[in-house]
Structures are given as structure tokens and as C-alpha cells.
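can u pls check wat happens w/ cytidine-5'-monophosphate
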Amino acid sequence: MSATVREVVLGVGAGIAAYKSCELLRRLQDRGYAVTVVPTPSSLNFVGSATWEALSGRPVNTQVWDNVHDVAHVSLAQKADFFLIAPATADLIARITAGRADDLLTNLVLATEAPLLIVPAMHPAMWLDPATVENVRTLRSRGYVVMEPEVGRLTGTDSGQGRFPETSAIIEKFDSITGNIRDLVGKRILISGGGTREAIDPVRFIGNRSSGKQACALATAALLRGADVHLVAANMSTQALAGATITEVESALDMQRVLMQEFPQCDVLVMCAAVADAKPVMKFTEKIKKTFLTSIELEPNPDILAELAQIKKGQLMIGFAAETSDHLESARAKLVAKGLDAIYVNDVSNGAIFGKETTQGMILSRTGADIALKEVSKDALAHLLLDYAAGQLG
Ligand code: C5P
């Protein structure tokens, strides 16, 4: 497995379109990019550092004089795999063309060797001014990709060429540069998510803390990459998942029934759900009176993944493990015992990861080196697992 999280610097110039880059940042994160925002000082008039820090979950600096001990203009330039500057104003384009280094962003552009996409947005008169035309030509001749702004209404009453392109168009262009291709078209990906509930009586159940966020991230990422996605959702929200087939289930036995039916047709199974290991022997049809609720006799649930492995015919199987101790040893043992191709083990001690936007742990696979992940978004993990799946599917 050679995949790593793709680090992006999102440079933001001082145009009113800066507010649209908040949405752009979100969509980049959905696609598994890890994004550091570097605004120009004057762009903070439009969108402030607090917004960028909250959305990116990372510190935001505008000058080389912030956090000098980090030497950010060098370290960030080296860490970034790709640069995206959106919006790029006429002034920012002129400064990059001239090789100036008067804020952190322009320092970074000079110091990096990463591919750079520039998305201009400005008044048509400024876009068509010979100075800008010449600057854009120069930047393109240096190998930078400069998008054409869209034609239409501007902030005032004027119209013409200068509008910030639609987020989807920017993402499409950026993906073509980063190689984030639709590599799962025609592939059927079956994902289980959430946590099963094992009924005690009509009111009470045995459950677990799984929120289903990781399964949503996997389904979203697989849809973006062109897959047919079927999500078997146990007690989780599936609102934001347009385009996926969703089957809602409650208990482990419900989930087993659906997965047994769907598994033969899939190319990849990602078993992300937290399946209860045991269920009450008796399911009462009436609510148990408080005074009789003293003990619950349990019996094991079937191990769905292990059973599916018995009937697999070439499907790729990826499991999850949540551990509070001996993470690696037990994950490696499960990889073999359950007949999996890969497993992601996360450390859930002290309530970490459940319900959060980020995860940390390790991907172990039968082929290739293990990948240790230190606090990455669940979207990024989803893309890493799908990178692995796409690689294996050839
Ligand atoms: O054994 P453990 O529960 O840690 O294994 C975790 C993996 O096995 C997860 O992928 C989970 O979805 C799956 N599993 C299952 N059936 C069970 C328990 C876990 O398929 N009864």
C-alpha cells in the first residue's frame, strides 16, 4: 500500500469570492484532502482567520512572522503535495508573477515545488487589462495551471468574464491535477455502518457508541469515485447520502440477513459497523418491570464477517477493529482469522474516535506495508481504504 494523505495548501486572495472558498474547503475535505488554509492578510477583510481555523481544524497564519520557530514558509512548502489558490486576485497574480514574497502565501509559492492551480476572480476590466493578461500568460508558461474565470454577473451590476468558477468545476480541475480520478466506476461497494441494537424488550436494547460517521465518509468517497454504493445502516443518520442504496437494519441478525443477500453481488465489502458480539437470549414482548430487571442472559451473535469470508468468491474484504489495548496484535490476528484482505484498527480508549470527525490508527493489509495514521479526517481514511481497494481491483 503506497497511499498517503494528500496535503493541500489552499491560498485565499482578497476577493469577495473568498466566502465561496469556505465551501470549496469543505468539498476538498470530503474528497480526502488534508487542507491548510493560507489567506493573504487583506483577504481576512472578507473571511477571518477564525472561520478558516474552525473549518480546516488547523492553525492559520498569514505572515512569515507568525510562529517563526516553525519556519512555516519552508516546512509547509515542503509538506504540501498540491497548491490551490482560490480566489486569486489581479494583485496576487501580479505578485506571484513578479516572484515577490511579501506574505506567507507568496513565500510558499516561491518555496514549493508542488503543482499549483490558480483560480482567478476579479472585475472583467481587471481580467482583461494587458498587465493581467501578460501575467497570466507568464504563469502558464511556467507550468502553472490558471483557470479561466466564468462569464456572468459580478458583485455589482456589471457582467463579463471574471466570476469565480463553480466549486464543482474547480474540484474537477483540481482532481485532474492531483490524479484523484473516478477509479471505481462500475464497482459495487457494500458498506456496513453504525452500531447494531439487540433488543431486551420493546424499550431497552444493548447497543454501542458507533455513530456511523466513518461509514458515511466511506459511502461518500466511494460515490465520488464512481462506485455503486449499498450502505447497510444500523441506527445511524444517512441524510447526506444521495446516490447510495440504503438498507436500514437494527440488530446483528437483520444485518447478517441483508449482507448474506447482497454480498455475492459486490466487488468490495467494507465492514465498518460495530456489530454487537452478543444478544439477550430472551426478547420480551412487554416492557420488563423495573423490579425484575436484575440480570440479562446473553448468547453470542454470529460473526458476520467470518461467515461471509466462507462464501466469498473473489470479493475484497476490509474489516474494522476498535480496540482499547493490544491494538496491533489483535488486529493482525483478526485479519487472518476472519479471512480479510485489510483491516483498520483504531484506538478507542478513553472514548476517542466515536462520534468524532477524525480518527487515528493503523491500516494493516495482507499485501504491502502497514500505514500508521495520526489524527486524520474520517474522509481521508475512507479515501485511503478505497485507494487500497482500487489498487487491488486493478
Ligand atoms: O471481532 P471484532 O468485533 O473486533 O471484529 C471487528 C470486525 O468484525 C468489524 O469489521 C465488524 O464489523 C465485524 N464483526 C462482524 N460480526 C460480529 C462482530 C464483528 O461482522 N458479530
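The mean pLDDT is 92.
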